[in-house]
Amino acid sequence: MEQLLNDFSPGLFIMQTILFLGLIFLMVRFAWKPIIKSLDEREEGIQSALDAAENAKKEMQNITADNEKLLKEARAERENMLKEARELKEKMIGDAKEQAEVEAGKMIKQAQASIETEKQAAIADLKKQMATLSVDIAEKVVRKELSADSKQLALVEEMLEEVTLN
Amino acid sequence: MRIVCRPITFITLFFTLMFSVVANAKSDNPQHSDEGAVDTQEEVTEYILHHIKDSHDFHLFSYTNSEGARKHVGFPLPVIVWSSKGPVAFMSSAFHHDDSGKVIVEKGGTRFVKVHSKIYELGSGAAGVSFDEAHHPTNAHSVLDLSITKSVFGILLVGLFMLWAFSSLARQYKDKQIPTGFGRVLEPLVLYVRDEIARPNIGDKHYRKFTGYLLTVFFFIWVMNLLGLTPLGFNVTGQLAVTAALAIFTLIIYTVSGNKEYWGHTLWMPGVPVLIRPVLAIIEVAGHFLIKPFSLLVRLFANISAGHIVVMSLIAIMVTMKASMGAFGATTLSFVLSFFITLIEVLVAFLQAYIFTMLSALFIGMAVAEHEHH
């Protein structure tokens, strides 16, 4: 201990105190302050750059979300439009079919009616012709019979043949 | 084989540089032709004890030339002392490497002798210095020694180095964000001290004020410790005066910046029985003014001094074991052991700087902490 105290040099202590005080002052003034300031500035710069990147990312996400929404809406709209068109088409087809059916039914009815009329007319005509023919035949038969039986028969035969041909 | 050169087997660029600049060999005192030679166990002990002290001249190595004269290579440093007749300055070469009080220097009307790296002023009328049994001079008194000793020279060297290195780093930031070259090495160290030592121990709110001091202390101690491992033989952080000054800096800082709450807890601890409070106050005050600074100054001093003594002792194996192991064996053993211990010392150099800074930050942090009231 005495040896240690003997080795303690007050002069060196004073020199170290003065020099170190000067060193602290000079280092703070010329080194640490500017270094720490620059480091802080750099760190702030990095932080703000990171923040900006984060913000940009968020914005991007927002834009993507918006796009997605728009796309979704557009898709829904298209779907809607397609659906409407399909419905319209079906309705039109249905309407057309209905109309056609109605029309066809009408036409068929008309046709049937006209056929009926024609048939009636034809039947009436036939009846009339049959009557005329019958009257003619009868007339002729009557006429022939008056001349000869055989001839009358032949005539009838002939007439009948004619009728069939007719 | 005479081992007379400096302790550690590093060959640094700095060493050769210094050597070429200051190779002013001087021969003196032919009657002491073996002065400075280290050949025996006693001389080794003497040499090591001498080394861990401060010295007044920068001595690199000594050798005996072909004429048998002793040559010392190094350069003198200025001696500035405050004697009874006022300030006196002269170069340390005036003592002619004498360290036993034999050479008397007359300057400024008084006479000085140097004994064991300390300068004494001879009493008037004394023809020469005489000693008591404990080898303390009896007819001379010590003077306030403000010399540029080897340690002061080292402090100046490290201070200039730090100023140059870090101000050039600071200048780099003017035109670029990321430093290049040496600055790229220094920047992470600065960040390390700020983010791993200052900020966590002092707290985000107050750490800025103390970062400058902590950075200075950290780099000063670290570079000083590393310089001590070079063959230049600096032992600055192993000087009690230096570590005491550093510890007192920390003491002053945490004393001045201690807030009301800290002093309240120190002097009149709340939450304990009133009778115990004075006892705690004594302990806390002792902790504040004695234990904390002593833990700082003794730890650094002891670690670095011990490191120097161990490294030099291992190198001395070369001398002391030569008789029993032969020159080659002793040299090899010495080299291997001192090599590994030097590696450990490089780690210790950093560790001690870290611990000193870390504890300083911790003490400051305790003084400025703002507690949540419970």
Describe, in plain words, how this protein is organized in 3D:
The complex is a heterodimer of chains A (166) and B (374). The termini of chain A are far apart. Chain A has 3 helices and no strands. With 166 residues, chain A is mainly α. The mean pLDDT of chain A is 86. Chain A has one domain (9-165). Helices cover 96% and strands 0% of the residues of chain A. The termini of chain B are far apart. Chain B is built from 9 helices and 10 strands. Mean pLDDT of chain B is 84; it is low at 1-33. By secondary structure, chain B is an alpha+beta fold. The longest helix of chain B has 47 residues, at 322-368. The A-B interface holds A 4, 7-17, 19-20, 22-24, 26-28, 30-36, 38-39, 42, 45 and B 53-54, 81, 118, 144-147, 149, 151-152, 155-156, 159, 162-163, 166-167, 169-171, 173, 177, 187, 190-191, 194, 208, 211-213, 215-216, 220, 239-242, 244-246, 248-249.
Architecture blueprint of SSEs:
The complex is a heterodimer of chains A (about 170) and B (about 375).
Chain A: H1 2-7, H2 10-145, H3 149-165
Chain B: H1 13-22, E1 26-27, H2 41-51, E2 57-64, E3 70-76, E4 78-83, E5 86-91, E6 105-107, E7 110-115, E8 118-122, E9 140-142, E10 144-145, H3 150-172, H4 182-202, H5 207-228, H6 240-256, H7 260-267, H8 277-320, H9 322-368
Antiparallel strand pairs in B: 1-3, 2-3, 4-5, 4-10, 6-7, 7-8, 8-9
Describe the structure concisely for a colleague.
With 166 residues, chain A is mainly alpha-helical. Chain A contains three helices and no strands. Chain A has one domain.
The percentage helix of chain A is: over 70%
Count every beta strand of chain A, where a strand is a DSSP E run of 2 or more residues: 0
Mean pLDDT of chain A: 86
Instruction: Give the helix/strand class of chain B.
Output: alpha+beta
Oligomer: heterodimer
Compute the number of structural domains of chain A. 1
- What would you report as the Rg of chain A, rounded to the nearest angstrom? 63 Å
Number of discrete helical segments of chain B: 9
Taken in chain order, the helices and strands of chain B follow as: HEHEEEEEEEEEHHHHHHH
Number of strands of chain B: 10
